[in-house]
């Protein structure tokens, strides 16, 4: 059995009520800490052979198009204060977790700040870390790495990071999630589980 996760059910798109054969679905909540705790619990309860996280993300600049689907090559914990030089992490703290599953979509690094970035200046600064922002992936990947469970993440760009992000996300997240699932199905991602 493989586990298909998302922050909340709508981001599973059409798979929310009908997971592919060999897969189970679950949600982990919003934010990296909540996602890490929920993922660790789900791994202990279900003991899956692999985990795939599906979600939406915002783009920092125009390297990626709206509704473009991507495979998260790495989830990077970061913050605006770190990028600005106003904060730092101890050198022994792990801040990046790689996908350990190969994916059928173009690979991109994903920045995972502690909160949604709502300024153009913030988006510009965080663009030096990755092309997109997402809130849960470091938690999911960290829990999977700790448990030795292969993991991957597939995301779809549904908004520009900045002051209009929330309205844009609300308008686009359902369509984006549908397109992401369609892309994964077309690539044969759910076959042979």
Automatic annotation (TrEMBL):
InterPro entries attached to this UniProt entry: Nucleoside_phosphorylase_d, Nucleoside_phosphorylase_sf
Top-level taxon in the UniProt lineage: Bacteria
Coiled coil residues, start to end: none
One Pfam family of this chain: PNP_UDP_1
Nucleoside phosphorylase domain sequence ranges: 28-102
Name of the protein in question: Nucleoside phosphorylase domain-containing protein
Organism from which the protein derives: Geothrix limicola
């Amino acid at each position: 059995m493989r586990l298909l996760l998302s922050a909340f059910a709508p981001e599973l798109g059409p798979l929310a009520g009908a997971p592919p054969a060999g897969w189970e679905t679950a949600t982990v909540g919003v934010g990296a800490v909540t996602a890490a705790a929920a993922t660790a619990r789900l791994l202990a309860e279900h003991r899956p052979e692999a985990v795939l996280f599906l979600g939406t993300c915002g783009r920092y600049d125009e390297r990626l198009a709206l509704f473009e689907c991507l495979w998260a090559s790495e989830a990077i914990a970061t913050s605006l204060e770190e990028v600005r030089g106003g904060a730092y992490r101890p050198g022994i703290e792990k801040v990046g977790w790689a996908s350990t599953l190969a994916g059928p979509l173009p690979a991109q690094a994903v920045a995972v700040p502690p909160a949604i970035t709502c300024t153009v200046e913030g988006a510009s600064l965080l663009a030096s870390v990755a092309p997109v922002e997402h809130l849960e992936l470091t938690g999911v990947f960290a829990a999977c790495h700790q448990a030795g469970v292969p993991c991957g993440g597939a995301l779809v760009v549904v908004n520009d990071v900045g002051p209009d992000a929330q309205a844009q996300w609300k308008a686009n997240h359902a369509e984006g999630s549908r397109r992401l699932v369609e892309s994964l199905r077309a690539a044969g991602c759910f076959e042979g589980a």
